[in-house]
Predict the structure.
Amino acid sequence: MAGLDITPRLDKAHQAVLRATPPEFLDLSDIPRMRQKFIDAMAKIAKPPRPEGLEISDHRPHDDMMVRVYRPAGLETPAPALYWIHGGGLVMGTVEMDDDYCAGLANRLKIVVASVEYRLAPDFPYPVPLEDCYAGLRWLHDNAGSLGVDPARIAIGGASGGGALCAGLGLLVRDRAEVPVCYQFLVYPMIDDRNDTPMSHQILDSRLWNRTANLIGWNSYLEGRAGADDIPIYAAASRATVEQLAGLPPTYINVGDLDLFVDEDVEYARRLRLAGVAVELHVYPGAFHGSNNSVSRSALSRRWKADERAALHRALHGTELEA
């Protein structure tokens, strides 16, 4: 199969960024090398100035993982919180890559944001990354008083591979019944290890998160068993039946219509709704995986950002975000 040429469906800003991306940019045949390449590429992206007075502190619930807390100046407490899980296809990524995103949310929404640095596959396959995320969330809840957080208003969120972990975490939290979560916020989540949707076969461009990279990511996380019959729902949330999705918190899902994950994300939203879960779904025409960050100044990306912030504000404060 030749794959889908997404270029004709992009606006000029998105076309320019895609053209500037080197061919074969995404090569996971050497994961350590790709991790460094990804860090170097993220470092070149222009960053906004850090909000004045923002406090950032690092904490270690245990020796193998870290939680970075972002707290805006003059925050009224107890405040709601977002527990954030960075992306990277389950094999890459760091807390630092989302510093500006988390700082911006904390400052604009007047919330605490806690971002977890979890261990990565294939060095640490399932369930280690998920248990790291659970440990960090449990730490946030247990220390809510000293952090100025309202334990009844903690949302969980994640992007891409972080969305995989967030969706799994939502199911795990519900079933362990130890930590209440009021909302889940899934940004183009990577949630189906089977890779059998139409779009999963069509996105082959090596400049993007594509089918080859996705298969490597899932097989790294699942120790070569992606697509096996007995993958648990906590590892790949798309495995959950409608009945198994009941009782999850209200959920936000967004994705571009040119993203590898669009089919699985729309289907997940449909089944959540059938399970009685309140769902807000956004599918953005002309957006590819991660373009809200790589083409951050486009009109489309600005709308994406505004929609995210408005939804989180409604979920955590119960009111509309003022312009």
